[in-house]
């Protein structure tokens, strides 16, 4: 039996992961499931999958969690430290599917205990790529990509040398507003931004798809995961979301990963790696699909891509600031304190202000420094938004 834990079990990636685990009950023994406020789901899944421990991120949710677990013998815990403790319980495979920078510390704890980390939480590599790689190397742990584009690249690279790679092309759906008139974007609402053309995902990543902050994070994630130069990583709009990424090699060949927009592809690949096993996903009927289309992203519509390139050029702790400013701007957009197009403007202003704060981005990449940068960027984003409002 392989021991597995799922961090962010109640979310979109978490639920897809549990779906696969539940189909092979004799192969997996579930150690820890973690969640946030969705206590009913967390308890139900913990009981159904016979988890050892269920953890909510929030202290005030401990009693409701205990109640929901009823007379089962599953341990109930709460709080950030308990999530990290759950991640460090011995396991062979840990899914990192908490949303946001909150996923970084638990992911590091899983690596420290030598587990294979199936990484959906892209913020982990954006905030602290070098630290994460170094932690994995020091503890003999492996990281397998789960973000669909990175799983696609990983699969296309199988058996290839990284020196043979000329370019990596990430596909982007273009998000909810791909075909909107540019001038309408400023008035876009959270509800309108929360609908993805092809994927069913959590609300935050769905809105990030509309602004292309998702692809911006993925550019940095690609750089950090595969350690290729930023100028070798491209983004192309592919409205059908059937090709998830392409790798171009030095001989001019390109390998594309094609599949239905279903995260169980990438999760299943990471779960079964290095084998391939049957997965309950749609088999594509190419003749029925007919055509796959591509177009270049418009820099005026998607300023987040330019900001990601600035961050890749800057390096150091700028990724942590970029992500935190984006998270703060997204919170403000969701609360209708700023408009859709203000998000990129806020992130740009925060990066530029923090760049001027001597040596900040060049501090050593420790978890403490990453979290300090994260907190400062959120504060700077708040100040920037207050100034813009006043
Ligand atoms: N959804 C997708 O298909 C894809 C997602 N990803 C990445 O995977 C990650 C998860 O995305 P997704 O599943 O969509 O997100 P969801 O919002 O659907 O789920 C997030 C999970 O994290 C929990 N959570 C929220 N805040 C905290 C916190 N502060 N501390 C601990 N746990 C917390 C939630 O708990 P609760 O809901 O109980 O409050 C939930 O279990 C993100 O990094 C995303 O970018 C990457 C590729 C595809
Ligand atoms: C499923 C997945 O990996 C998401 O990151 C997805 O790619 C989002 O779609 P966009 O291409 O719209 O950002
Ligand atoms: Mn993705």
TrEMBL record:
<feature type="binding site">
    <location>
        <position position="218"/>
    </location>
    <ligand>
        <name>1-deoxy-D-xylulose 5-phosphate</name>
    </ligand>
</feature>
<comment type="function">
    <text>Catalyzes the NADPH-dependent rearrangement and reduction of 1-deoxy-D-xylulose-5-phosphate (DXP) to 2-C-methyl-D-erythritol 4-phosphate (MEP).</text>
</comment>
<dbReference type="Pfam" id="PF02670">
    <property type="entry name" value="DXP_reductoisom"/>
</dbReference>
<feature type="binding site">
    <location>
        <position position="173"/>
    </location>
    <ligand>
        <name>1-deoxy-D-xylulose 5-phosphate</name>
    </ligand>
</feature>
<feature type="binding site">
    <location>
        <position position="12"/>
    </location>
    <ligand>
        <name>NADPH</name>
    </ligand>
</feature>
<dbReference type="InterPro" id="IPR013644">
    <property type="entry name" value="DXP_reductoisomerase_C"/>
</dbReference>
<comment type="pathway">
    <text>Isoprenoid biosynthesis; isopentenyl diphosphate biosynthesis via DXP pathway; isopentenyl diphosphate from 1-deoxy-D-xylulose 5-phosphate: step 1/6.</text>
</comment>
<feature type="binding site">
    <location>
        <position position="218"/>
    </location>
    <ligand>
        <name>Mn(2+)</name>
    </ligand>
</feature>
<feature type="binding site">
    <location>
        <position position="123"/>
    </location>
    <ligand>
        <name>NADPH</name>
    </ligand>
</feature>
<dbReference type="InterPro" id="IPR013512">
    <property type="entry name" value="DXP_reductoisomerase_N"/>
</dbReference>
<dbReference type="GO" id="GO:0030604">
    <property type="term" value="F:1-deoxy-D-xylulose-5-phosphate reductoisomerase activity"/>
</dbReference>
<feature type="binding site">
    <location>
        <position position="202"/>
    </location>
    <ligand>
        <name>NADPH</name>
    </ligand>
</feature>
<feature type="binding site">
    <location>
        <position position="122"/>
    </location>
    <ligand>
        <name>1-deoxy-D-xylulose 5-phosphate</name>
    </ligand>
</feature>
<dbReference type="InterPro" id="IPR026877">
    <property type="entry name" value="DXPR_C"/>
</dbReference>
<feature type="binding site">
    <location>
        <position position="209"/>
    </location>
    <ligand>
        <name>1-deoxy-D-xylulose 5-phosphate</name>
    </ligand>
</feature>
<dbReference type="InterPro" id="IPR036169">
    <property type="entry name" value="DXPR_C_sf"/>
</dbReference>
<feature type="binding site">
    <location>
        <position position="215"/>
    </location>
    <ligand>
        <name>1-deoxy-D-xylulose 5-phosphate</name>
    </ligand>
</feature>
<feature type="binding site">
    <location>
        <position position="36"/>
    </location>
    <ligand>
        <name>NADPH</name>
    </ligand>
</feature>
<feature type="binding site">
    <location>
        <position position="11"/>
    </location>
    <ligand>
        <name>NADPH</name>
    </ligand>
</feature>
<feature type="binding site">
    <location>
        <position position="196"/>
    </location>
    <ligand>
        <name>1-deoxy-D-xylulose 5-phosphate</name>
    </ligand>
</feature>
<feature type="binding site">
    <location>
        <position position="10"/>
    </location>
    <ligand>
        <name>NADPH</name>
    </ligand>
</feature>
<dbReference type="Pfam" id="PF13288">
    <property type="entry name" value="DXPR_C"/>
</dbReference>
<dbReference type="InterPro" id="IPR036291">
    <property type="entry name" value="NAD(P)-bd_dom_sf"/>
</dbReference>
<keyword id="KW-0460">Magnesium</keyword>
<dbReference type="Pfam" id="PF08436">
    <property type="entry name" value="DXP_redisom_C"/>
</dbReference>
<keyword id="KW-0521">NADP</keyword>
<feature type="binding site">
    <location>
        <position position="13"/>
    </location>
    <ligand>
        <name>NADPH</name>
    </ligand>
</feature>
<feature type="domain" description="DXP reductoisomerase C-terminal">
    <location>
        <begin position="259"/>
        <end position="379"/>
    </location>
</feature>
<keyword id="KW-0464">Manganese</keyword>
<comment type="similarity">
    <text>Belongs to the DXR family.</text>
</comment>
<feature type="domain" description="1-deoxy-D-xylulose 5-phosphate reductoisomerase C-terminal">
    <location>
        <begin position="143"/>
        <end position="226"/>
    </location>
</feature>
<feature type="binding site">
    <location>
        <position position="147"/>
    </location>
    <ligand>
        <name>Mn(2+)</name>
    </ligand>
</feature>
<feature type="binding site">
    <location>
        <position position="121"/>
    </location>
    <ligand>
        <name>NADPH</name>
    </ligand>
</feature>
<feature type="binding site">
    <location>
        <position position="214"/>
    </location>
    <ligand>
        <name>1-deoxy-D-xylulose 5-phosphate</name>
    </ligand>
</feature>
<keyword id="KW-0560">Oxidoreductase</keyword>
<feature type="binding site">
    <location>
        <position position="38"/>
    </location>
    <ligand>
        <name>NADPH</name>
    </ligand>
</feature>
<protein>
    <recommendedName>
        <fullName>1-deoxy-D-xylulose 5-phosphate reductoisomerase</fullName>
        <ecNumber>1.1.1.267</ecNumber>
    </recommendedName>
</protein>
<feature type="binding site">
    <location>
        <position position="149"/>
    </location>
    <ligand>
        <name>1-deoxy-D-xylulose 5-phosphate</name>
    </ligand>
</feature>
<feature type="domain" description="1-deoxy-D-xylulose 5-phosphate reductoisomerase N-terminal">
    <location>
        <begin position="4"/>
        <end position="129"/>
    </location>
</feature>
<keyword id="KW-0414">Isoprene biosynthesis</keyword>
<keyword id="KW-0479">Metal-binding</keyword>
<dbReference type="InterPro" id="IPR003821">
    <property type="entry name" value="DXP_reductoisomerase"/>
</dbReference>
């Amino acid at each position: 039996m392989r021991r597995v834990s799922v961090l962010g079990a109640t979310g979109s990636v978490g639920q897809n992961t549990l779906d696969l685990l539940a189909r092979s009950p004799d192969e997996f023994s579930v150690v820890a499931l973690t969640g946030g406020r969705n206590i009913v789901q967390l308890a139900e899944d913990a009981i159904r999958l016979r988890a050892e421990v269920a953890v909510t991120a929030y202290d005030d949710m401990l009693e409701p969690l205990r109640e929901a677990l009823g007379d089962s013998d599953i341990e109930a815990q709460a709080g950030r430290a308990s999530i990290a403790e759950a991640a460090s319980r011995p396991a062979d495979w840990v899914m990192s599917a908490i949303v946001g920078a909150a996923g970084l510390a638990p992911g590091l704890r899983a690596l420290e205990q030598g587990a294979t980390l199936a990484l959906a939480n892209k913020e982990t590599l954006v905030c602290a790529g070098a630290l994460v790689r170094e932690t994995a190397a020091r503890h003999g742990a492996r990281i397998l990509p789960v973000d669909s584009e990175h799983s696609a690249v990983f699969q296309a690279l199988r058996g290839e040398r990284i020196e043979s790679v000329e370019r990596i092309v990430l596909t982007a759906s273009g998000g909810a507003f791909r075909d909107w008139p540019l001038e309408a974007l400023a008035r876009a609402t959270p509800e309108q931004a929360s609908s993805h053309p092809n994927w069913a995902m959590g609300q935050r990543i769905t809105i990030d798809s509309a602004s292309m902050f998702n692809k911006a994070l993925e550019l940095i994630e690609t750089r950090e995961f595969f350690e290729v130069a930023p100028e070798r990583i491209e983004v192309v709009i592919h409205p059908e979301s059937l090709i998830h990424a392409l790798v171009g090699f030095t001989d001019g060949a390109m390998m594309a990963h094609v599949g239905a927009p279903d995260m169980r592809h990438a999760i299943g690949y990471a779960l079964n790696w290095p084998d391939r096993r049957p997965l309950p996903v749609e088999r594509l009927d190419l003749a029925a699909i007919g055509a796959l289309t591509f177009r270049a992203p418009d820099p005026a519509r998607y300023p987040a891509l330019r900001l990601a390139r600035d961050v890749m050029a800057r390096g150091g702790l700028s990724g942590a600031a970029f992500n935190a400013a984006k998270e703060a701007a997204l919170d403000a957009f969701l609360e209708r304190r700023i408009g859709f197009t203000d998000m990129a403007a806020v992130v740009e202003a925060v990066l530029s202000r923090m760049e001027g704060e001597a040596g900040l981005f060049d501090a050593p990449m420790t978890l403490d420094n990453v979290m300090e940068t994260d907190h400062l960027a959120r504060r700077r984003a708040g100040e920037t938004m207050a100034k813009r409002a006043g």
